Predict the 3D structure of the following.
Amino acid sequence: MKRVGASAPGKALLCGEYAVLDGAPAVVAAVDRRVTVSWSEGNGSMPPEVQATLGVARRRCGEVSGGLVVDASALRREEIKLGLGSSAAAAAATAAAVFATHGHALEAPEVTRLVFECALEGHAAIAPQGSGVDVAASSFGGFLRFRRYEEPEVARLAAPAGLCIELVWTGHAARTSELVAKVVDLRERAPESYRVHMARLCDGASEFVEAFTQGHPGDVVRAAASYAQAMAGLGEAAGAPIVEARLRRAGELAGRFSGSAKPCGAGGGDVAVAFFSDSAAADAFKLACRDEGLHPIEVSWGAPGVRAC
């Protein structure tokens, strides 16, 4: 059997943070910074999500000898994770490598779905607090509408014509698990406050999905701004730095150029995602970010999902 490696894209969560855990829809995009896995002779030292997913995929698809070497350098800067879903991409690439080695065409929709299911199970074994939206982006690629029920709902979207999306790294890594834990604690100690803030986020997520689906860039910009405010409110109530100083500054700079910006993920640092309906404004925003020590990340949007390599 000729063993085949695989790659999977990173992701940027455009909207739906926290609310997706309560059943609200989220919009996520794959980006062209990829995690690659290749086979090795020994099991070696594998990240836990890779080891877990490898076990799941072997049971579902068939045995493959050896372990996997992971290259996630494209999703790091200065050895710091950028917050673009490297662990989810590693899990998706792992499952894809097993299926590709057994001769399955990863581009076939039924195979991609199986890869997603294996990666989701393996990733959840290590990070059970997640929604799976990042695993979906890394498996399927493109722009997706994601909703978590008993079975995750995944539907492809097209980005609105004229919408400019930019990523900015704060230079500071965040731990999603710690932020989510503070939000869970809010739910336990102040359930009414939690309900109010989560309702606002769920409504905001639905508004963003509607604007994005209808293809209205201006409405997307406004919905993202509203969602950023809702995330800040949740953070204040939970005592969690969801919209910390660097992310707040990215939002202020985007607003200066008639755009909006919000945390791209759980917040606390990592990456901001900004939206504009004018490309010149987007370019001016990136220049202003560089002047203030924020770091624009160049990506291509809607990258393909898992691929053999």
Observations:
- Residues 3 and 101 are 5 Å apart (CA to CA).
- DSSP finds nine helices and twelve strands in the chain.
- Residues 6-159+302-308 form a domain with the Ribosomal Protein S5; domain 2 fold (CATH 3.30.230.10).
